[in-house]
Design brief:
binds zinc ion
Length: 276
């Protein structure tokens, strides 16, 4: 590639494009976003209780300290200069909400990322296959939906991460290199164990709070995601294991609003340069 063909988005990410020769929007906003990105990823929500604040401090520290732990993507902008944003869905598959979400994504022709619980992928193999066949990324969300911190590192890796990896590889025919822990909580040594095995741990930078009592209505979910959406962000939603009708109802409104604001939707593996 000749130098003059370097996409504008790359220059913006590097903070190199400070003039206005390229036209379009003034670059000030993009440059500062790129600098903020380098300074460490953040969980953007307002955390309004001490448990959430502790969680936030922990994952932001882990994102700073581990090369395989992420809250957001590496590329705030795509080659067209649009803001990248990744929709992610935990706790599937199921046979009610996962298909409803897939129908919405198909209608908009948007690719997303699903972090699947191993034992639910065993229960709903056709839905796991549909997710893959429709072009979405898949990561593991442990074999059982339990708190990883209660398991020692070797047990956690073998029986939650690797077991789900092997199961999904058998079912779907490809290697799963993305992992997200239930509740987003994982110990430092578990992250390190994942790193040794080439597994990337992907949390989120925007929590839809669709899991949170009192916040789990479509209006609140829409409001919190649209408010905190940012270039390169990963948004957390849920597609199974509970009543996710509010998530399903909110999703088209969120997509419409973010499209209007110039966001483009990408898969977490692409956002993190994890080989497909
Ligand atoms: Zn979960």
């Amino acid at each position: 590639m000749r130098p003059r063909e370097i996409p504008k988005a790359v220059l913006l990410t590097l903070g190199l494009l400070v003039g206005s020769a390229e036209g379009g929007e003034p670059p000030r906003k993009e440059v500062s976003a790129a600098r903020a990105h380098e300074g460490g990823a953040r969980l953007r929500n307002h955390m309004d209780n001490s448990a959430l604040k502790t969680f936030q401090a922990t994952v932001e520290r882990q994102a700073r300290n581990f090369s395989n732990f992420f809250l957001e993507g590496k590329h705030p902008y795509n080659e067209k200069g649009e803001s990248n944003f990744s929709l992610t869905f935990d706790d599937g598959p199921d046979d009610v909400y996962t298909p409803a979400i897939l129908d919405i994504l198909k209608k908009y022709n948007i690719k997303a990322t699903f972090f699947l619980v191993g034992e639910l992928a065993e229960k709903y193999p056709a839905m796991a296959k549909r997710i893959k066949d429709e072009g979405h990324a898949i990561g593991g969300h442990a074999h059982e939906h339990v708190d990883m911190r209660k398991l020692d590192t070797k047990d956690m890796y073998a029986n939650q991460v690797e077991k789900t990896r092997e199961l999904l590889a058998r079912q779907l025919g490809f290697s799963i290199n993305l992992f997200r822990a239930p509740y987003g909580v994982v110990t430092d040594s578990q992250i390190e164990e994942c790193r040794k095995h080439g597994v990337v741990v992907a949390n989120w930078s925007v929590d839809s709070f669709d899991w949170r009592k009192g916040y789990d209505n479509p209006q609140q979910i829409e409001q919190v995601v649209v408010k905190h959406a940012h270039p390169g962000g990963f948004a957390l939603f849920h597609s199974g294991r509970d009543d996710r009708s509010a998530t399903v109802a909110a999703l088209p409104h969120i997509i419409d609003k973010l499209l209007q604001r110039g966001f483009a939707f990408n898969r977490v593996d692409d956002a993190l340069d994890v080989p497909r």
